[in-house]
Write a structure and sequence with these properties.
Blueprint lengths: L3 E2 L16 H10 L5 H21 L17 H5 L1 E13 L6 E13 L5 H10 L6 E4 L1 H6 L2 E2 L5 H22 L3 E5 L16 H11 L6 E5 L9 H4 L6 E5 L6 H4 L8 E7 L9 H14 L5 E5 L8 H18 L5
Parallel strand pairs: 1-10, 3-5, 4-6, 6-7, 7-8, 8-9, 9-10
Antiparallel strand pairs: 2-3
Helix pairs in contact: 1-2, 6-7, 10-11
Length: about 325
């Protein structure tokens, strides 16, 4: 069995150079009341199909919808949960990137009301020639990326968010989803507003709640840094796949040796935040090195993070290079 090529989540929404930005025009037209919600959804559907085609064409085995319907990975998810409100004047920087998002505010008890991502996953799965994974911002990071105005105890908030996300995960599994990724960048890269020191114990407790009762494959995804915990602690988290950033977290190479035999590794080798194209030989050698540390059938390779920070053509070229490296590592001519 060969190494699996995958993506982390987001993909650039702007088109290739010289093409019209249909999504931006449709969003503006919808805000002016010139088109219907169904019209906007149709444009989003077209973009999802386009992004999935590019991923499949690059040799990606496990794809996403590229977050084509979301301005970011936090606010739409929070907006679908009871207890969050979206403050339109609260724009903050997303970690150390040159992107900003509208910070959700917690103003009441957090509860799951109804499916948030199910219909979008169904559409993507219906048009993809590959398995489609769904991504959710994990409970610990979603709280750290929000402003708490209601809960006196942050631990209680994190656990309520975990229960709500577990309900969303169960709805996805009931719809047929087989792979669910929980993004927890705050475990390795704290936003400026996060409280220190990091509470790994709370993150561990929340993870157990978030995946409780699930039978589908679950991945814990970290990016923008290296894991600080000991392997025996970090890999005790209740996930089947562990996603690690080997670009901004070089120390993760030392962590891999502690990966249990019944878990899989998703290795972020392709720099998702720079336009420079990686050397085919370098990527091939890294994949081979990881294949010596864990069995090939337990290895996925990906970008280090979502690709939304790149121009569309560079993101596509980088994914093609990742696919080429997977084939080269397997001894297939490219």
């Amino acid at each position: 069995m060969n190494v699996t090529a995958s993506v982390v989540g987001s993909y650039p929404k702007p088109p290739h150079e010289g093409q019209p930005f249909r999504l931006r025009s449709a969003i503006a037209a919808r805000e002016r009341g010139e088109i219907s919600a169904a019209d906007l959804e149709g444009v989003q559907d077209d973009l999802v199909e386009e992004l999935i085609r590019e991923q499949v064409g690059a040799g990606i085995d496990l794809v996403t919808d590229g977050h084509a319907r979301w301005p970011d990975a936090q606010t739409p998810l929070a907006a679908g949960l009871e207890g969050f409100t979206m403050a339109h004047d609260d724009l903050i920087r997303y970690f150390d990137n040159n992107t900003y998002y509208r910070r959700p505010h917690v103003t009441g008890p957090v509860r799951w009301r109804q499916p948030i991502t199910v219909e979008a996953w169904r559409f993507a799965s219906g048009v993809a020639a590959r398995p489609v994974k769904q991504t959710l911002t994990g409970p610990y990071s979603l709280v750290k990326l929000s402003r708490n105005e209601y809960y006196e105890d942050e631990a209680e908030l994190v656990l309520d968010v975990a229960r709500a996300l577990n309900a969303e995960a169960r709805a996805l599994e009931a719809a047929g989803a087989t792979y669910l990724q929980f993004d927890e960048p705050a475990l390795v890269a704290h936003p400026s507003a996060a409280q220190h020191p990091k509470d790994f114990g709370l993150a561990f407790e929340a993870a157990a709640v978030a995946v409780d009762g699930l039978g589908l494959t679950t991945e814990l995804r970290t990016f923008f840094g290296g894991v600080e915990e000991a392997p025996e602690d970090f890999f005790a988290l209740p996930f089947g796949v562990f996603g690690l950033d080997f670009v901004d977290g070089a120390s993760n190479w030392d962590l891999v040796a502690g990966l249990p035999l019944d878990r899989r590794l998703s290795a972020g080798l392709l720099d998702g935040r720079t336009t420079a194209l990686e050397s085919l030989d370098s990527l091939r050698d890294q994949i081979r090195r990881l294949s010596e540390l864990t069995a090939r059938e337990r290895l996925e390779v990906t970008p280090s993070c979502g690709l939304e920070y790149l121009p569309r053509d560079r993101a596509q070229r980088k994914l093609c290079r990742l696919g080429e490296a997977v084939r080269a590592a397997a001894g297939v001519a490219v």
